Amino acid sequence: MGTMTSKTRPRRRAASATQQGPSTQILDSRRLLYFYYVAKTGRFVGAEAALGVAQSAMSRQIQQLESELGLQLLERTGHGVTLTPFGEILYRDAEDILQRMSSTITELRDAASRNAQSVSIAAPPTFTNVYMADIILRLQARHPTLRVRAVEASSGSVMNQLTGGEVDCAIVSLANPPRRIVQRPLLTEPVTVICSPSHPVAKQKDVPRSQLHELDLVLPAALNGSRALLREYFSVEDVPLRSLIEADSLALSRQLVMQRRLCTILPTSSCEEQIAAGDLVAVALNPPLARTLYIARLRDHSPADAVRVLMDVTEEVVQRKQGRTRRPGKRSR
């Protein structure tokens, strides 16, 4: 039998190790990572720039790696480092080892996301009443095992639940959200004065902004929801924002407006049934006011598959009800 060359020995040992199971002799992944980047760039300063780790810390870790192996991997020179023959062997395999480790971590995280199989969304009543049932039904039709938690809250509370991490997604109306929020627009809808048919305003073609402070208004209380939109609208002409009653309940607001000589300012869609039945009237504002709703998530949370599906289905349902088709190529962020 011929003499084995140095190139065939590692292969024969690797095959034997595979048959017998993993060896207990393993490399520290952090030290391997540092060695790989120093070897790749040829300089500790290059590895420092790539990894954001101090040169001294990397040098100590690589020295420990060499000590564990009992081999010198790098030749330190005044201009950087060069690989020793042993270092060349390790460098040859290091990228594949590190890439496989990274792929395994990604696969594990993806599997964890798929197995979670739950998603939550918070929305104001004006949105919930019109869209939420269809969103949940479509989600269940596509993903029968997906558990969905839908929370109805005032516009201001919805944002608080999202930023507090209590829900995965939220329907919000902030045009300029905090940087930690990622959102995409869903719809823009008119906001009008809502009153009973017997109210004097019901006979008007529109309600001038300057007249609003004369009305007995039922308005939301939360400052970072619909009230923020109204406050901005009123402030353009320095019209005082006054409310006789503050209520963060859509049902209560509608009930009060139907039974007393009160008005509220809401998206027309939130009272469609009552308007169609003749119980309420929507009167346009002059100048017009519109509200844009967004579906939002936290930027620092990598969206799981279920969250992406929820965002996509929400947009589909809204656009279908709005009589539009989904724009090609628009995907989850």
Automatic annotation (TrEMBL):
Record keyword Transcription regulation present: yes
Residue ranges occupied by any HTH lysR-type domain in the UniProt entry: 27-84
Region span, Disordered: 1-23
GO MF entry, a single one: DNA binding
Pfam families assigned to the protein according to its UniProt record, in alphabetical order: HTH_1, LysR_substrate
Domain of life: Bacteria
Keywords on record: DNA-binding, Transcription, Transcription regulation
Keyword Transcription regulation: yes
An example Gene Ontology CC term for this record: cytosol
Alphabetical list of InterPro entries matching this protein: HTH-type_LysR_regulators, LysR_HTH_N, LysR_subst-bd, WH-like_DNA-bd_sf, WH_DNA-bd_sf
PROSITE patterns from the UniProt entry: HTH_LYSR (PS50931)
PANTHER family associated with the record: HTH-TYPE TRANSCRIPTIONAL REGULATOR YBHD, NITROGEN ASSIMILATION TRANSCRIPTIONAL ACTIVATOR-RELATED
Family (UniProt): Belongs to the LysR transcriptional regulatory family.
Identification of the protein by name: LysR family transcriptional regulator
Organism: Panacagrimonas perspica
